[in-house]
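tool_call: predict_structure(chain=1)
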Amino acid sequence: MIRDIIKSGLIVLILIALQLTLIPLVSIKGIIPDLVVIYIVIYAMRNGQVKGTFFGFVVGLFFDLFSGGLLGSAMFAKTLAGFVAGYFHKDDEEDIFSNSLLFASIIFIASLIDSFFYAFLGSAEVELNILSLIFMNGIFPAAYTSLIGLAYSLLVRKK
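tool_result:
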């Protein structure tokens, strides 16, 4: 138990560091994938909704602290992502990567919620263009994140 917590904590810290430093370098027209959400989805699907929600909360808190953004915006968004991904937890299914398209779809949904709420709550702009918020800060980052998640699940499944 303690070993799993330490392992997950180290993975989260590494992913947050990558997300804030290297991942913006692979952006496409300002749209970047969110590796942290992929890990939250994996954790929630393996451990259930309650643990996934709490994990998303803690990860979001650390993300807010390290990113220097508005405290609470990532915390709320990643909590929702963990909550939604936890709906897809099944006790009898150990391999969450067995259906890669389902896994990518769950990542898309969780990432869409995360990206939308993070952009909405963390934006300093008074006037938000709703179409920009939906597409540029919601659907496009979610699609990019789900493609990365799909590639990861295909790599893991082949092992």
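agent: Residues 130-158 form the longest helix (29 residues). Proceeding to next step.
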